[in-house]
Amino acid sequence: MSDIGFIGTGHIAAPMVRFLAERGHSVCVSDRNAQTAQELSASHGVAVAAGQQVLDRSDIVFLCLRPGVAPDVLQGLTFRADQQIISVMAGVSLAALAQHCAPATGFTLTIPLGYLEQGGCPLPACPDPALLSRLFAPENPVIGVSDEAAFGMHFAICAMVPGILDLMNTGAGWLASQTGDRESAVRYTCQLLAGFLSALPPGDEDQLFRERDALATDDTLSLMMTRGLRDGGAHKALESALSAIGQRLESGP
């Protein structure tokens, strides 16, 4: 088991803290978000301390700060050369981490989502997946990405999640307007997509096309939907949003 610290204890950090604590690791979280930190202490027995105390007692350190405040927070902390640093901060490069966290040199970038706690959350890891695999696999698949620029684009795809949720909410709202039952409309929409995706076998590069075409055959409602979205510009809007996010990531936080 490992001594693990978290600098920044919010929505992204909390599920990782619970996952790691439940697996027997010794976890200490910073007191920047006092309410969340105390809730984690009460529910999972993790320690709560000031930032430097977290570092002093940890061999593995998760950086879960908002990118805009990270430089100011990190410059006031003293890291050790032997510490392994895992950053979940979008747009903060390996070079920036090396500057902020010197003399530490072991860095890993990843992108967790809250359902990591239940398992099944893919974790891109750059440049080396070994540490994340030790901590979070096999419950969560770890995907090695050796190129930092390619890793950054995974943040753009991750940003699709709230976008898709927004579209699902629109669909559920339309269904509710037809049935008069908002609760059932939301439940049906969510379970329909969740069940379909969870039933998919491990994918290959053609899986999305294959599954789409299996549903959207000639003269079907599914084909009406795929054509309607494409003709309405949904795909171009998605590509435009992804490109804008990618450009923002390349420019840094």
From TrEMBL:
Gene Ontology biological process terms in this record: L-proline biosynthetic process
Keyword list, A-Z: Oxidoreductase
Family as reported in the entry's similarity comment: Belongs to the pyrroline-5-carboxylate reductase family.
Domain spans labelled Pyrroline-5-carboxylate reductase catalytic N-terminal: 4-91
GO MF annotation terms: pyrroline-5-carboxylate reductase activity
Protein name as catalogued: NAD(P)-binding domain-containing protein
